């Protein structure tokens, strides 16, 4: 399997494990991972104040440079979606048919990127109505794979989530 | 003007001023106000850990007992909307034609109560897409009054928000 | 009623609602409000770490430019009174016969400005002895108006406090 | 030198070192020390959340059982002085001619116990006006000894403060 | 590959990712994992206050019931090693020839279990001297495998660490 | 008794009282004390975030300039021992036959400075094994004096610890 280049989006209040488990897991599998924030070299902090430094800013990356994007939950997506560049990046990755993975509240980024119409997906229960209103068939399952879209509900789904993501990267 | 009975919903992570400014302001105007949470007598804490004790639980209140509901923002609405009883309470107050006021992220409760179809409303910018997907015409104004629905954007809109709420209660 | 120009003093450890309720309430009533600290543009934080940015420093304001001063409680007054300029500002506003309003521990500023001799006033119970020693008749009432001096006890008195302040501004 | 029995008063928000330096120093000198709070066995926390467990409640101690009282600063004295039993205990120790030591904001307890009339004393600068209004000659010195009254200004005065306290206990 | 039963030890101040990455990674690989603390059902908190509930207490587990033990770093090992039952559990797992994995400050548990004599191992740099004094050849490498002993240095070694652990479990 | 020059080492996470009690106690006894950190003028914070500013950096001090070194516990020693200059400073003070005092987890610095072989010493129970592996006879006593080496276990030993330190400075 060839190494892939994966973008992980970051902002303050990200859910600790929903960022770091995918981060280290992708590295363990041999992929290349970049943490991308609104500002380069800024140390964003998780819901529990665990620091995560963005190695690149959203202003300097191009969707062409990545094979997929992985979005953590927590309340970080509530912040990310206010940045049009972040939203556009996700939409473009999606439109290029590459992996778009979102767990928990990260579904809000799928809503704002408008990539849910006619899709099957899941998320944390709290944003179910937002997901449905954005046009998806919302189901209550540990992980849902619909084409290039991989979604999960909570940290406890991380093993199933990463298995699906790695399978998707392997098949690409 | 006759005193009205107003319900203010509360949960952890409420935005401090979006709860307390309406609370004291309604009292100052001579109205009766109840803080209502999922549990009675529990001290919920704001984003900045300011305590707010619920005097009643959502299980023991009836929409008939109130003349309106005021919903604070912060991330409290992300929690409230997981409680079907909270959502139903807002919908019933709305369906009875009484005041429903929501500021900032409180718009999520309007989404889940499904009271936005065909309405004009505002909210914090971050949830604009969720508001639109729920069927409203979203505008960027300090306060929007559409029938019994009063919505605002952020703490800085509190003066305009409360003026509109008090006017609405006075006209009823 | 003509709009008045009101100074609200701020320092770290201010009581959250005793600053922000008067702030937004005065704006709602159509007055102009300036947050004034020992340093301009510094973000002071409340007892619960709610930020409040001073738009002007005490060094650059003149009592002539204001129609009154409102002082929040918390432990901010314990800090403010160490700054002679803050104390002098309150005394001068007072000597010009303009509104001086103090709630809770803000009474300490009245003590240091020496404006309590022969007056009737209240405060949080804890500083009652300091108030009496400064020469006032201390009473346990929600709000006490004695000439241009308006005093209250705790956040729960905010509705009565602001009613009295607004009445005072309206009569001026 | 005979061992003395010393009461140290405690409440939340005590200044860490102003409690613990006297505590260990008195023990090192061979004296017996009791931490006394409004509730027995409660763990009070300092300004920095350092825990201090009260071994006795103010309800169960008698001034006759102690040779002196030492009062820490921080904002603990603002709480202690609301408890009439605490204030009375200090006044009685004083009236029995025994050691009363107060540092920093602990001067507030001397104000409320009304033991400052005609005395020479110091305190943190912030409460100078309250001390003066209570009738003392306030001076800006590291430690002031006036009969059985020992007062200091801030943590940096602790060495001079404890030297004076120990000398006072030794001469008794 | 058959599923293994793995014990992960937990105590307050554990390094967040050094516990949770192995936890979810082992689950993803199909193994069974138990979090074991000094008390059952207690929620221990990480250096950043991320909660981790122990499903079993050290008092109720037997080394015979597990195929290996994984020990997180942070300052949790400084607490674990005070509990003789925790130390004995690690020594017995080791003496039964099963996997013993330790990252960062978890080396302290290997020191106290006295399983380092004559072995090759690594750890966070800070405890290098303690490791050497306990008899091991200390090297500065991302992961060191010496028989049933797997050691790593810091969170950034997690991918290499887990690869080695999974390889070891697969070969058993 | 002549005044001595004492170095107190500091780093983040120092145990509050294990630094400040010796600090003020040595000053009270008439000695000169310098707080020394890896960086000059940096404010290190204790386990409870009490600030302590280093007046000198380890880079600019010479063992010849001091009559002894006192090392606080907490997790600060886990940081100090990573700095070879800190470790060397302690070893040189020791080799010059001057006072070396360590309480609680400060024993780690004695381990890394390799000054424990053949000595009698104590420490917090948690690091007993590291102390023994470094060659000392570890005993469970409030304070242990072995030549120029003075060691104690926890904050509650501070009175005995300082008595022994002061006696040692007096006899030199």
Automatic annotation (TrEMBL), chains A, B, C, D, E, F:
Keywords: Glutamine amidotransferase. Residues 4-167 form the DJ-1/PfpI domain. SUPFAM superfamilies: Class I glutamine amidotransferase-like. It holds the Pfam family DJ-1_PfpI. Coiled coil: none annotated. The keyword GTP-binding does not apply. The keyword Amino-acid biosynthesis does not apply. It comes from the Bacteria. Belongs to the peptidase C56 family. This is Type 1 glutamine amidotransferase domain-containing protein. It comes from Thermaerobacter composti. The lineage of its organism: Bacteria, Bacillati, Bacillota, Clostridia, Eubacteriales.
């Amino acid at each position: 399997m060839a190494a892939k280049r994966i973008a992980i989006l970051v902002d303050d209040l990200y859910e600790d494990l929903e960022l770091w488990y995918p981060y280290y897991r992708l590295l363990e599998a041999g992929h290349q991972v970049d943490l991308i924030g609104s500002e380069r070299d800024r140390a964003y902090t998780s819901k529990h104040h665990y620091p995560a430094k963005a190695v690149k800013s959203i202003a300097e990356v191009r969707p062409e440079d990545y094979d997929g994007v992985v979005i953590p939950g927590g309340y970080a997506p509530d912040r990310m979606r206010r940045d049009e560049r972040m939203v556009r990046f996700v939409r473009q990755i999606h439109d290029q048919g590459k992996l778009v993975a979102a767990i928990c509240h990260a579904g809000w980024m799928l809503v704002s990127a408008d990539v849910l119409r006619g899709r099957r997906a899941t998320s944390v229960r709290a944003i179910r109505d937002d997901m449905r209103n954005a046009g998806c068939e919302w189901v209550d399952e540990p992980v849902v794979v619909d084409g290039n879209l991989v979604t999960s509900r909570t940290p406890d789904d991380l093993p199933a989530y990463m298995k699906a993501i790695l399978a998707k990267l392997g098949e690409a």
